[in-house]
Amino acid sequence: MKVSRKIKNLRILTILSCLGALFISGIAAAGPVDCGSSPIRVGQFKLGYRYYIENGQEKGMNKDIMEEIKKRTGCLFITQEMPFARLWADLSSGEIDMTLSGIRSPERDKTLWCIPSITAKNFVVIGPQAQASVKNAADFIANEKLQFGMVRGYTHGKELDAKLDRLKQDGRVEESGNVDVLFEKLKHGRIDGFYSFPFVYRKNISELSMEKDVTIQDWAPKDPGIVGCMMLTKQRFSEDEAKRWNALVQQMRADGTLKRIFVRYVSPSEADKMLNF
C-alpha cells in the first residue's frame, strides 16, 4: 500500500512538473518575441555614440537598446563586436542572427528582415586642407586635388551617393574599413572629406581634439535622412517573427524608451528627428 502511494505521489509530481514546464514555455511563446531554443547571436560594429568600446566595456545607443530588449523579452543573447565587412558576411552566412545597425537594400532583402529603428542624416566632415576653399559640394568636386573618403560598403542616401559616384569616376574616393580610420586619414591629410552622422563625428572629433580643424556641411539640405534598421536573418526568423520584433521596436518608440536612450547621446530635438522612421 505504501509503495502504491509513493508511485501515485510520484506520478502527481511528474504531471505537475510537466504542467509547469508547459506553462513556462507558453509564457515564453506568448511574449513579445519568440526567443527560440538557442541564444540569439548579435553582431555589433563601432559607430560613434551608436556603439563603442570603452575600457573593455560596451557603450552607446545600441548597447542600451539591447539591455532594454533583454528585459522585455527574457531572451538570451550573445553579442560580439566585429569589423563592419565581417558582420555583413556573417549575417549572410548565418554565423550571427541579428545586428542593430543596418541600411536596407535589395541585396540584403534576400537574406535579412529590416526592422526600422532610427532615422539619421549624413553630413559632410571637411578637413583642414579644404576648409578655406570648400563651402559646398560643387567646390569640392571642382578641386581635383581633393580626395574623399568612405567606409567600404556604406550607403548614404540617393543624393549624397550620386555625388560620391561622380568622385569615384574621377578616382578621387579612398575606401577604408571603418569610421575611425577615416578620421585618422582626415587628421593626417590623406583625405579631405567624408560623410558622417552627427552621433558619429561628434564623438571622434572630440576624442581627436579636431574641433578647430574641421567644418561640417550639409550637401543635401532637403534630404530628411535614411532609415536605419535592426536586421534579422531569414535563416533564423520567420516573417511572422520579424513582425513581432517590429512591434517590439514600435512599442519602445511609442512608450518613450527609444527617446530616453537617444537623449543620453544627442539633443532632444535631434532625438525627435531620429524617431521619425
Short description:
The protein is 44% helix and 21% strand.
Give an overview of the whole structure.
It contains eleven helices and twelve strands. By secondary structure, the protein is α/β, with parallel strands linked by helices. The protein is 44% helix and 21% strand. The chain has two domains: 40-120 and 227-274, 3-Layer(aba) Sandwich (D-Maltodextrin-Binding Protein, domain 2); 123-217, D-Maltodextrin-Binding Protein, domain 2, CATH 3.40.190.10. Strands 4-1-5-12-6 form a five-stranded mixed β-sheet, sandwiched between helices. A five-stranded mixed β-sheet has the order 9-8-10-7-11. The protein has a two-stranded antiparallel ribbon with strand order 2-3. It holds the Pfam family SBP_bac_3. Residues 1-30 form the signal peptide. It comes from Propionivibrio dicarboxylicus. Keywords: Signal.
